[in-house]
Amino acid sequence: MQALDYISAGSVKEVVGLLASNNGRARVLCGGTDLLVQLRENRRRVELLIDVKHIPELISIHHDSQAGLWIGAAASCYEICHNKLVLENYPGLVDAIHLIGGVQIQYRASVGGNLCNASPAADSIPALIVHEATCIIANQNGTREIPVEQFCVAPGKNAMESGEFLLAIKVPPAKEKFGAHYLRFIPRNEMDIAVVGAGASITLDGMDQKTLSARIALGAVAPTPLFVEEAGAFLTGKEIMQGNIQEAARIAQASAHPISDLRGTADFRKHLCAVLTRRALEKAIERAKVS
Amino acid sequence: MNKKIQVQAVINGEEIEFLCEPRQSLLEVLRETLGLTGAKEGCNNGNCGACNVILNGALVNSCLVLAVEINGCNLTTIEGIATSQGLHPLQEKFIAHAALQCGFCTPGFIVASKALLDQNPNPSESEVRQWLAGNLCRCTGYDRIVRAVMDAAQVQEKAL
Predict the structure, then answer these.
(1) Cβ proximity of A270 and A258 under 8 Å
(2) Which tens digits make up the pLDDT trace of A121-142?
């Protein structure tokens, strides 16, 4: 690995100052499970690593019924998946975050890092999109907030400007009659990158008969994780029945424009989009009914 | 640049101080500065688990941790698993079940299994397999490893 400097920062203000004074030559370090590999393979040049794992706001996970869930950008996948409040209120998020690597990776990797790395196949991102999560970005003026679906702009590129960094992810409060699910297809049981991933969330009316709102997002079928707004819009106001679920899955499939690569052909990925969207919706509905 | 940084940590119960460059991985420093060569460099990118160590109770790949990051931490490596009384039950059972062939992955498997039994003393077979999914072995086919871990869990339970 190239020579570099390392600082463990103590506050958000310190990180903002270091990013500004190093003008593009510094990068924030959380778990390092992507970044250290990229540095070792000379895929990035960095002169200063700013470790943010010791800043309270960046590692805290808290939830209240008004403000919703705060996930510090450096909180580890393991911490998130073993947090009682997250497990109780956001099982659809846990589905996705639990899939990121084996236990050794879970203990280090952060969901913030999974977002910043902006892989089209990142498991956490479709799940965050269907939960209407937002990114809290820190900069010299304070913070700004953007929806997760606007955060990734190209493979490996996110919407943050030079001098900014991801402070936290905010997820709206868990509602009644809301359910979500994420699943992916991989050719083995664990430890792999999604061929296709699908997230769905749904809010039902009090009678469990109609959809009040729904969101669908896909991974690994476009240059960025794909929010399929029109599939959710189609379901809104409709009866919960197999024909409508199939149609939403068809709309999601039509919006995908995957490539063929070593993990699967474009045709196979198209096929998976419909199957996985349907299964994600069915499980989300099942959860919504009992929530 | 290149300035060495002083790091203090408790490694296998002993207070240790060392100097390292910020770019050095924990694995590199363990093996080349501290002479703890039990952790192996397999893939050096977080896929194989051969370099596993326990950092403040968490199982991690030492190739994906910078040595400077462990300042003030408590670290257990494979060298810290046996005690002066003898081998750890996991080590005994890996031998009894012949759960290794070339042995290169074995330290990582034993450290990973220790981390599992520390928090789940009586795991099911599927829990063992799931937990060890981040450790690769290209010789044994895993069955003997899983049996050794299950057996070691039973021995530990009886001892309590």
Answers:
(1) yes
(2) 999 999 999 999 999 999 999 9
**Domain around A30:** 5-51
- In chain A, which residues have their Cβ closer than 8 Å to the Cβ of B49? 102, 104
Task: Please state the ipTM of this predicted complex.
Answer: 0.95
Q: Does pLDDT of B1 surpass 80?
A: no
Residues of chain B with CATH 3.10.20.30: 5-80
- Please count the structural domains in chain A: 3
Measured between CA atoms, the residue of chain B closest to residue A47 is B1
Q: What is the pLDDT of residues A171-198, one digit of tens each?
A: 999 899 999 999 999 988 778 899 999 9
B58 Cα to chain A: minimum distance (Å):
6
At B25-39, the pLDDT tens digits run: 999 999 999 999 999
The confidence score (pLDDT) of residue B2 equals 62
Tokens (6 digits) for B1: 């640049």
Nearest-by-Cβ selection for B46 from A2, A33, A53: A33
CATH (domain of A71): 3.30.465.10
Same domain? For A165 and A189 the reply is no
Q: What is the pLDDT of residue A174?
A: 85
Please indicate if any CB of chain B lies within 8 Å of the CB of A40. Answer: yes
Classify domain B89-159 at the CATH class level: mainly alpha
- B5-80 carries CATH number 3.40.50.1000: no
The DSSP code sequence of chain A is ----EEEE--SHHHHHHHHHHTTTSEEEESS-TTHHHHHHTTSS--SEEEE-TT-HHHH-EEEETTTEEEEETT-BHHHHHT-HHHHHH-HHHHHHHTTSS-HHHHTT-BHHHHHHTT-TT-SHHHHHHHTT-EEEEEETTEEEEEEGGGTEEETTEESPPTT-EEEEEEEPPPPTTEEEEEEEE-SSSSS---SEEEEEEEEE-TTSSBEEEEEEEEESSSSS-EE-HHHHHHHTT-B--HHHHHHHHHHHHHH-----BTTB-HHHHHHHHHHHHHHHHHHHHHHHHH-
CATH number at residue A19: 3.30.43
Domain check: are A42 and A63 in the same one? Answer: no
Specify whether A103 is located in the same domain as A122.
yes
**Cα A72 from Cα A62, distance rounded (Å):** 9
Indicate the DSSP class of residue B83.
B
Distance from CA of A31 to the nearest CA of B (A): 8
pTM: 0.96
